[in-house]
Write a structure and sequence with these properties.
Elements (H helix, E strand, L loop, with lengths): L3 H8 L12 H9 L6 H4 L4 H7 L2 H10 L4 E7 L10 E6 L6 E4 L13 E5 L2 E5 L2 E2 L2 E2 L3 E5 L4 E4 L11 E5 L2 E5 L12 E5 L4 E5 L6 H4 L6 E4 L2 E6 L2 E5 L3 E4 L5 E7 L2 E6 L7 E2 L11 E5 L6 E11 L3 E15 L3 E16 L8 E8 L1
Antiparallel strand pairs: 1-2, 1-25, 2-3, 4-5, 5-8, 6-7, 8-9, 10-11, 11-12, 12-13, 14-15, 15-16, 17-18, 18-19, 19-20, 21-22, 22-23, 23-24
Organism: Microthlaspi erraticum
Protein name: F-box domain-containing protein
Length: about 350
């Protein structure tokens, strides 16, 4: 027969099992399911967690399980005199807790204006643009796993606002060079395997036919370009979205109102139904996840509470066709995603954006 002390010990709860005492493959499987954007916070738990999260085995497990994250990166002009370079952020895709998280690695050069952004795998490429009002040959990429910037070999030709897209694992860049460049400088292609740029002409690869989603225009990297011979003109305000009926529509923002038209047949602009009027200084950014059927709208709001503060707001909007000539918008969520002191943020504060899936 047990005495009272032995009975008390038998009724006590067994000590809790540590997560890290579980078999390694179970730990790896659990951590692989956690979005990358939450890893910095998780790495602060312990040195053991930090070691596992930094392990290449975790990426192998994610690849084997088919787990990918969609991360929206945006570059904002903050109007900060002490930090003249624009700042890059990633939008944390946490339901009801969306917020912008800064990329801590500082941009290594003077940030170019009017660059073109494309993404491939876990890398986001910043191509050309203007530096001190001069076209640039520079190309950099952000490793979206480590959030560090790296340089690529320079392009052959300086370019500003070129069209660019990843095709078959290579980066094709078209246009954006000065008028005195001949047809040989019309385009160039970067091969990540050889780390080299090679020129190509329209006769070598007719991208106008290959990438033309909108009749008479060139679509590359989710952007629409008017074509006039070899000259490209970016229609910056237009985004392309795909409806549930697999029909492409053009979306643009005009005086706080979202408007749309069928990209194939009916070129009449109409209002998107079901949405309130937006800020006249809003910005439209394509979100290519969910089948390319969503956009984000960005705007700022300044207010005085003991001092001036600025809120950056974001709303994600999806679309659904309503009959033949209707398109209805639905606000999936809307929230202030960033707040900072002051009110000097310029009207045009969203400079770049890219969706990286990895």
């Amino acid at each position: 027969m047990m005495n009272m002390e032995e009975m008390k010990k038998s009724l006590e709860s067994p000590p809790p099992v540590s997560f890290l005492s579980l078999p390694h493959d179970i730990v790896d499987n659990c951590l692989a399911r956690i979005p990358r954007i939450l890893r910095p916070a998780l790495s602060l738990v312990s040195r053991s967690f930090r070691s596992i999260i930094a392990s290449p085995e975790l990426e192998v497990t994610r690849l084997r399980m088919g787990i990918v994250d969609d991360c929206l990166y945006v570059c904002l002009e903050m109007g900060d005199e002490n930090n003249p370079n624009p700042r890059w952020f990633t939008l944390a895709p946490i339901p009801k807790r969306q917020k912008l998280l800064p990329i801590l690695d500082s941009f290594p050069y003077q940030h170019p204006e009017t660059s073109t952004i494309v993404s491939m795998g876990s890398k986001m490429y910043l191509i050309g643009g203007l530096v001190d009002e001069e076209r640039s040959r520079r190309v950099l990429f952000l490793d979206c796993r480590s959030h560090q910037w790296f340089s690529l070999p320079d392009m052959i030709v300086p370019r500003d606002r070129p069209a660019a897209e990843v095709i078959d694992g290579k980066i094709y860049v078209i246009g954006g060079c000065s008028k005195d460049k001949n047809v040989e400088h019309w385009g160039e292609v970067y091969d990540p395997q050889t780390l080299t740029w090679e020129p190509f002409s329209p006769a070598t690869l007719d991208l106008t036919n290959q990438k033309s989603v909108v009749q008479g225009r060139l679509v590359m990297g989710g952007r629409v370009y008017e074509t006039n011979g070899l000259k490209l003109s970016l229609k910056r305000e237009i985004c392309l979205v795909e409806t549930e009926t697999n029909v492409w529509c053009e979306i643009y923002l005009c005086s706080g109102e979202l408007r749309w038209r069928d990209a194939y047949v009916d070129l009449t602009w109409r209002s998107v139904e079901g949405l309130e009027k937006l800020s006249p200084y809003s910005f439209l950014v394509t979100v290519a996840n969910s089948g390319g059927r969503r956009v984000t709208v960005w705007w700022k709001h300044c207010r005085y509470v003991e001092k001036w503060v600025t809120d950056i707001w974001c709303a994600e909007i999806s679309f659904k066709r309503q009959g033949v000539r209707g398109l209805r918008g639905c606000v999936e969520w809307t929230k202030s995603v960033l707040r900072f002191d002051g009110r000097d943020c310029p009207k045009k504060f969203v400079l770049h954006s890219a969706l990286v899936t990895h």
